[in-house]
């Protein structure tokens, strides 16, 4: 980091600390606090200034999140709204959409989910068949989506739907914001994973209604808009990232946290609480430290193969951190490192697989036991005498998901090969043939 960049980061942290001293009040409601945080630009400081941000780079944004956490205030409203929807709308939306949709995201008023994947269009996302048909000032949407994270608590969805079947598949897709609260028209069904949790959902839409004003990025331009969402997703999921101030409270109207006292979401020592539950992958960010402590506790740290794997995991995490610095240095001179978000996503997949294999080696036979429900957790802890084993087995079971969601490892490699290295694509006619003429589920 240059001296100038270091001073800039220090100045930003000093600025947010001063603001927190003047504005943090544990007696506010969560909604009142998030409104202060969001409208001041500190909930999503990486967004541009016309979209309730401060135009900071990724590293300075993380520094802001860390400063909020260290101060002991409740962090910004987490979730896919802040991670994906807000930067997408800020890039492709109108100022009116920014003033309504992004405002509701940064202030925590609305929670969002992502309605992209379909049973027959996972890796081939452009092959989606969910239809949106124009009806006056509205669009009528019918179709099915799957692997929808947070759909059960979402107020809004990032929807891509087919609006033209007479053009090649990438050209007939449009991106919308959709109201998830349409009883009888939008049906969200949880999918229980092998971790015992239900992070993902399937969503059925039957003549759901979307106002024309909620079309984002223009008619049939949805593939370009969706790629902005996907790039933010890969950057957010990639190794070396972090969101230290991720909120313990859940945004949106469904979770009912907005009217609760904000001070109840920070612990007695003034540190933010962490949200419980999830899909079993919550320990990924701190997985290395957990495994080191566990290996020390049961004597496995003296095993040379365990020590070697711990160093491999440490190295992978450090490489991810350095890649973030590479990205920051590139942006400082107006240059994006080609394929870096895809490389970071692949690195994250390797990290979770390494954590899975290493954690189970450290646990030994205990790694065959897992608590799927809270009452089973107590029984498991009592039987094993190790309250950390369930965290390790949870990480191991969840490790199969990250190499799939956000674009599979194979898709990331294809993107790097074709778009970065310039290797030839597999021969097909999907860029020229009308979507209705293409074989389905092929």
* CATH-level-4 superfamily name of one domain: Acyl-CoA dehydrogenase/oxidase, N-terminal domain
% residues in beta strands: 5-15%
Characterize the largest beta sheet: strand count, sense, and whether it forms a barrel: 4 strands, mixed
| Mean pLDDT across all amino acids | 89
Give the H and E element order: HHHHHEEEEEEEEHHHHHHH
Number of strands: 8
Terminus-to-terminus distance: 48 Å
Q: Which architecture of one domain would the CATH scheme give at its second level?
A: Orthogonal Bundle
Total helical segments: 12
Helix-residue proportion: 40-55%
Report strand order across the widest sheet.
Answer: 1-4-5-8
| CATH T-level topology of one domain | Butyryl-Coa Dehydrogenase, subunit A, domain 1
Overall 3D shape: globular
Query: What gyration radius follows from the Cα positions, in whole Å?
Result: 22 Å
Low-confidence stretches: 276-283
């Amino acid at each position: 980091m240059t001296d100038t960049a270091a001073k800039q980061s220090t100045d930003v942290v000093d600025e947010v600390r001063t603001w927190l001293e003047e504005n943090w009040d544990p007696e506010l409601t969560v909604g009142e606090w998030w409104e202060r945080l969001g409208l001041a630009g500190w909930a999503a400081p990486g967004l541009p200034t016309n979209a309730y941000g401060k135009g900071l780079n990724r590293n300075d944004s993380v520094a802001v999140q860390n400063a909020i956490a260290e101060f002991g205030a409740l962090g910004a409203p987490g979730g896919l709204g802040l991670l994906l929807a807000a930067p997408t709308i800020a890039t492709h939306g109108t100022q009116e959409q920014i003033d309504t949709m992004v405002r509701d995201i940064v202030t925590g008023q609305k929670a969002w989910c992502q309605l992209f994947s379909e049973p027959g269009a996972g890796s081939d996302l452009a092959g989606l068949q969910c239809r949106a048909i124009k009806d006056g000032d509205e669009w009528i949407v019918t179709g099915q989506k799957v692997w929808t994270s947070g759909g059960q608590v979402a107020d809004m969805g990032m929807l891509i739907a087919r609006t033209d079947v007479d053009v090649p598949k990438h050209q007939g897709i449009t991106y919308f914001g959709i109201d998830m609260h349409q009883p009888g028209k939008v049906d969200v069904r949880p999918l229980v994973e092998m971790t015992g949790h239900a992070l993902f959902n399937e969503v059925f839409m039957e003549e759901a209604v979307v106002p024309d004003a909620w079309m984002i990025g223009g008619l049939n331009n949805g593939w370009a808009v969706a790629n902005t969402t996907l790039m933010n997703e890969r950057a957010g999921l990639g190794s070396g990232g972090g969101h230290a101030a991720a909120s313990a409270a859940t945004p949106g109207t469904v979770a009912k946290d907005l009217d609760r006292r904000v001070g109840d979401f920070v612990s007695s020592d003034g540190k933010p609480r962490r949200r419980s539950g999830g899909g079993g992958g919550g320990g990924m960010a701190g997985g290395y430290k957990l495994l080191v402590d566990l290996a020390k506790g049961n004597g496995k740290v003296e095993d040379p193969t365990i020590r070697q794997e711990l160093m491999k995991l440490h190295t992978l995490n450090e490489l991810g951190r350095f890649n973030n610095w590479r990205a920051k240095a590139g942006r400082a001179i107006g240059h994006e490192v080609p394929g870096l978000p895809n490389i970071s996503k692949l690195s994250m997949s390797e990290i979770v697989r390494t954590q899975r294999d290493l954690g189970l080696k450290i646990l030994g036979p205990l790694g065959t036991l897992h608590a799927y429900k809270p009452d089973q957790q107590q029984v498991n802890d009592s039987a094993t005498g190790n309250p950390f084993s369930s965290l390790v087995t949870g990480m191991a079971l969840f490790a199969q998901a990250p190499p799939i969601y956000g674009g599979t490892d194979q898709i990331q490699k294809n993107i790097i090969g074709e778009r970065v290295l310039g290797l030839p694509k597999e021969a097909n006619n999907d860029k020229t043939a009308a979507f209705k003429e293409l074989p389905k589920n092929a």
